[in-house]
Amino acid sequence: MTYEDIRVEHRGGVSTIVLSRPPVNAVTPRLLMEVLSALDDLEERGETRCVVLAGSGTKAFCAGADLKADNTLAAGDSFRDLGRAVVDRLEAFPKPVISAMRGWCVGGGFAIGLACDVRLASTTTRIRTGDAYLGVIPSWGMSLTRLTHFVGRNRALDLLILGEDLDAEAALQMGLVTRVIPEEDYDAELARIAERVAGGAPITFKAIKETIRAQYMYTPAAAQALETHWSDIGGASADMREGIAAFREKRQPVFRGC
């Protein structure tokens, strides 16, 4: 498929969705629809074992909604619904998703970056959720819903009410990002981590994502039921047998997702 606001690239088991609206990769309804379409394609693509979500260039991962674009402002509720759909899709996507949160990560960029499973910051990363200073209600299902579960009530209020820039180290201390990588090493380290994740067991990743999400979307009891469900599936899988055999034989396992 041909896209206008994103690029999709493949390297081995890693597929990368690049938000491509320089200079700051601001979000429009079309970009969100293209991300959803790309995720649908990558879910069906058997060769894809890990997805990276990145921004073009190094200035910004994503600086939020493009408030200068008429089609963004005119979209209204549908824009909100698209934003929520992308956040939900990233979180529930059955394969691991890594966000390359390099440079500015603001507003809607904050929402979609945090929805990913592993969040890699650069030393250049700056995070802001300052909607209150634009008169905007954050409504993509992150800042007012998930964020409290991610960082706790007090830290969520600090971020939302102060609305100040947060550097990469401060974001790491809050648990917003997984790790901070020196800018000069960023591309190589991102590739290394993504390649490692692509080599993991697909069934186990599905179990991890679905069960962890159920902890706050539903109930602990629902999460425990999912744990039992996935344990039964995993225990009968060829991948579990392959993983144990590879451990005993001191080699890398070759998982097939079955």
UniProtKB/TrEMBL annotation:
Name of the protein: Enoyl-CoA hydratase/isomerase family protein
GO MF annotation: an example: isomerase activity
InterPro entries linked: ClpP/crotonase-like_dom_sf, Enoyl-CoA_hyd/isom_CS, Enoyl-CoA_hydra/iso
Family of this protein: Belongs to the enoyl-CoA hydratase/isomerase family.
Database matches in Gene3D superfamilies: 2-enoyl-CoA Hydratase, Chain A, domain 1 (3.90.226.10)
Keywords, in A-Z order: Isomerase
Any single biological process term in GO: fatty acid beta-oxidation
Transmembrane segments: none
